[in-house]
């Protein structure tokens, strides 16, 4: 069988594997504005465990609330900053995976001038930016940014592990990661941008998120209530699945390159 036939058969397989694929391609082709919501699932193929699976080994003895909350930090700032610094060191070794790279390509296909494609992420690893995505909104902050608890002065820390926990700031206070902890408000500008993007989009893709944490998960309902077509990419069902219009059931690193490949063929 010559390669064209091979290719066309694999293309047809895609439509068999993912029954909603042809409708997804049609929606993206006609979309004027696209909003994307990503969660930890899009980074698993880069070797970063999802938030809930991430508590392994020594850290499995702790409840996430003890490690990702203002109360947990107040009770033991050394433990919390050590946990985040170990995650920062682990993430430093990770690279964007085909899912991140496909999303950066999708932005260029859908809206080269950027402002009609908004990628809202709950992730704190910045792999989307590393993959080339331009218009990224970080709802939960970034593990690379740390700030002084006294002055709020924030700085990027890309170096090796801190020498002590909690790490001292350069003006007598201590540093905390600039990530959103349970019970803390989202950065107002980030939320406003995300909410607006999901209000005016024609198509919204929810990728690699359990849609369990609000207000982020509420962006799906905002898009839907404004008439957007909603699409979910996830190997599992999620809390949003019953409300979502189209499903691509599988890994983001497998499915997104297929979507981009089909879109790139006119
Ligand atoms: P979760 O760990 O709650 O959910 C991860 C989702 O990714 C699950 O639905 C998995 O099925 C899915 N998944 C796993 N592998 C995947 C793959 N290869 N491709 C696509 N999907 C895959 O992570 P989040 O939904 O991101 O917030 O959690 C949201 C927030 O909960 C986090 O940002 C964090 C946590 O509380 C704060 O810390 C404030």
Structure description:
The protein is built from ten helices and nine strands. With 266 residues, the chain is α/β, with parallel strands linked by helices. The strands form two sheets. The protein has a six-stranded parallel β-sheet with strand order 3-2-1-7-8-9, sandwiched between helices. Helix 6 packs parallel to helix 10 and helix 8 packs parallel to helix 9. The mean pLDDT is 93. It binds 2'-O-acetyl adenosine-5-diphosphoribose. The site of 2'-O-acetyl adenosine-5-diphosphoribose has 27 residues, from helix 10.
Number of helices: 10
Largest sheet: 6 strands, parallel
Low-confidence stretches: none
Query: Count the strands?
Result: 9
Q: Quote the average pLDDT.
A: 93
Distance from N terminus to C terminus (CA atoms, Å) equals: 24 Å
Biggest sheet, strands in spatial order? 3-2-1-7-8-9
Write down the overall geometry: elongated
Strand content is: 15-25%
Order of helices and strands: HHEHHHHEHEEEEHEHEEH
Radius of gyration: 20 Å
Ligands bound, unique: 2'-O-acetyl adenosine-5-diphosphoribose
Structural class assignment: alpha/beta
- Percentage of residues assigned to helices: 25-40%
SSE blueprint:
Elements: H1 3-17, H2 21-30, E1 34-38, H3 64-67, H4 70-75, H5 77-92, H6 98-110, E2 117-121, H7 127-130, E3 136-138, E4 141-148, E5 154-156, E6 175-179, H8 188-200, E7 203-207, H9 218-225, E8 229-233, E9 246-248, H10 252-264
Parallel strand pairs: 1-2, 1-7, 2-3, 7-8, 8-9
Antiparallel strand pairs: 4-5, 4-6
The structure holds 2'-O-acetyl adenosine-5-diphosphoribose (OAD).
